[in-house]
Amino acid sequence: MVEKYIRELRSYLKSLNPMERAEASRFYEEYILDAKLTSRKEIEHELGTPKQLARKILAQYSPMETEPFLDSKKAQNKNTKQNLRAIWRILLKLVSIPIGIPLAIIMIVFMVIVFAAFLAIIISSILLIAASIGIGILLLPIVFTNDWAAGIFYLGWCLIVFALILMLEPLDIRLFHWLVNFVANLVRTIGYYFLKMNKHDPDFIKEIIDRKDYQ
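Above: the chain sequence. Below: its structure as tokens.
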């Protein structure tokens, strides 16, 4: 029964890459076995149907490609806030166990590096916008001289750079949502295994599985 459920789940996760699909399948297969859910009814009571569970997984693994599952930008923003809160809660649980303290520190350092890289992209974009505006202002007087052709040429390039950066701005926002979801999913997976290994707070572990903080 478990194999059939997981097989159906995999069939709904084809949009994930093989590694993500295998990780998600293994994660829920282990949960079903650990919880000793033997019948289809028990499994679906805990996790929902394979299709329902797949929608939850897809919304977490690939929010940039699963916008049909998000009602609006407001829903996406809400999902990101909930993921940030979930990351914080899981980290707090991890530091409550001895082995979890160094693990939590490593995860925090990893998150700082990831979001610092994202921040660097944003700052670079802002600097490019400022530079294109500044250079454009400096070149503007040349348009009214004998070198007007060269002035228009370089001014045109400044406008192109400015326009391209503005067009890429929505991608920066979507990238941020994707990063939060990626980190939340990583923290959830690691938190589940370490908390389960230390038999810590079964109710909270079940909450991680249910992804109540991620919906």
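The chain has eight helices and no strands.
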